[in-house]
């Protein structure tokens, strides 16, 4: 499995953020976008980096003024 490296030098310090119908991989250290990921890759990232599963995310998420509601 590949490592995710940001231009700031952080390695594998990542988080997934929904953006419309896509999911972006972002650096936790500087907040920069790294790449768009598929649903399968997002699932692998969730398990590999022990990020919160979707069921533990809040019911309402606001990113850049856009409100996302968990279904």
List the helices and strands and how they pair.
Elements: E1 14-19, E2 22-27, E3 33-37, H1 39-48, E4 60-63, E5 66-69
Antiparallel strand pairs: 1-2, 2-3, 4-5
Label this structure with key terms:
71 residues, three-stranded antiparallel β-sheet
Residue share in helix: 10-25%
Instruction: Report the strand count.
Output: 5
What is the number of helices?
Answer: 1
Q: What class, by secondary structure content? A: alpha+beta
Let me know the largest β-sheet. 3 strands, antiparallel
What is the H-and-E element order?
A: EEEHEE
- Overall pLDDT score: 81
The unreliable regions are none
Query: Rounded to an integer, what's the Rg over CA atoms?
Result: 12 Å
**Number of spatially distinct domains:** 1
Strand % is: 35-45%
Record the strand order, biggest sheet. 1-2-3
Q: Can you tell me the overall shape?
A: globular
CA-to-CA gap between the ends?
A: 30 Å
Describe this structure in words.
14% of the residues lie in helices and 35% in strands. The protein is α+β, with helices and mostly antiparallel strands and 71 residues long. The chain has one domain (14-69). The strands form 2 sheets. Strands 1-2-3 form a 3-stranded antiparallel β-sheet. It has a two-stranded antiparallel sheet with strand order 4-5. The protein is globular. The mean pLDDT is 81.
């Amino acid at each position: 499995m590949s490592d995710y490296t940001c231009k700031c030098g952080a390695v594998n310090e990542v988080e997934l953020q929904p953006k419309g119908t896509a999911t972006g991989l972002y650096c936790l250290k500087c907040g920069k976008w790294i790449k768009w990921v598929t649903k399968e890759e997002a699932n692998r990232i969730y398990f590999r980096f022990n990020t919160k599963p979707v069921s533990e995310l809040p019911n309402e998420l606001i990113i850049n003024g856009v409100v996302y509601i968990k279904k």
